[in-house]
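During the reporting period the student researcher (J.K.) took over the structure-prediction task from the postdoctoral fellow and processed the backlog of single-chain submissions. One of the processed entries is reproduced below for the supervisory committee.
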Amino acid sequence: MNNNDKDFVLRKNNFIQNNKKLSIKSKKRLQKSKSDNTLRAYEADWMDFYDWCTHHNLQALPAEPETIVNYINDLADHAKANTVSRRVSAISENHKAAGCVDNNPCRGGLVRNALDAIRREKGTLQRGKAPILMEDLQNITSYFDNTDIAGIRDKALLLLGFMGAFRRSELVQIDIEDLTFTQEGVIILVAQSKGDQVGQGAQVAIPYYRSNRDICAVTALKSWIHTAHLDSGPLFRPLNKYKQIRNRRLTNQSVAIIVKKYAKLSGLNPDNFAGHSLRRGFATSAAQHDVDERSIMQQTRHKSEKMVRRYIEQGNLFKNNPLNKMF
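J.K. obtained the following structure tokens:
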């Protein structure tokens, strides 16, 4: 096996760097075609494949189609079909970056047929984290300590995450400069996100919840900014053990930890919840309150109706249940 096989070539992409017809500017821009999160996920997937090849004394780059088929069949013994598909995508992208375009082993019929067989056998149902519904959120608010800076931050984080239907990665990327307060509420600029890789940007409006200030995201947001004395830079920041605000962003993982903390305090099983529970909870709750699909998509910024309809179907499982008309 080539000792250089272990290199994750997609990150430096020799296929681009060695292309003498491309300008330096073009090469730099092409290297940004995939987000850092995508590259990290692909790198972890590639290393798993590489380690498997090492164990079986097989070549990883370029790999034979049979090698990939045998690998994913071993993987399928303990992994979900969606995980297997993602691994194949990572292997394929790394081969492309190494210059294997026309002879990419992942594009052959053998690998595709193996993937189809695994999907058919294991199914492709995705079991996401449970949503935090509006009723859950109202219960959680009683556990925020409004005299503690961490509690004030957490309240703003959770309410904003729910009302804005934000992904956790979007929440931690919000800067003070992205906020515009108006008489109606706040407008938040989302410069770039998972669903907007080209940076088209979007504006998310969150109105005042005047009938219930306890769960008003705008009021909680203003309280956090005032208490933390923030005037620029990251909106949500970590605290040290002395409850002093650090000059950096919260991480994606921190959002999940905070969600789990308050889920547990309110009597919910924290294992069922994560950062995505806020976004999913908004969509599901909106459907339960008869908000139309188009309006839900406007707030969640989904490009496709497919995922939103999954949330709507979940929200209406009992509401539109035919048994309600029979009892």
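The committee noted the following: DSSP finds 15 helices and three strands in the chain.
J.K. will present the remaining backlog at the next meeting.
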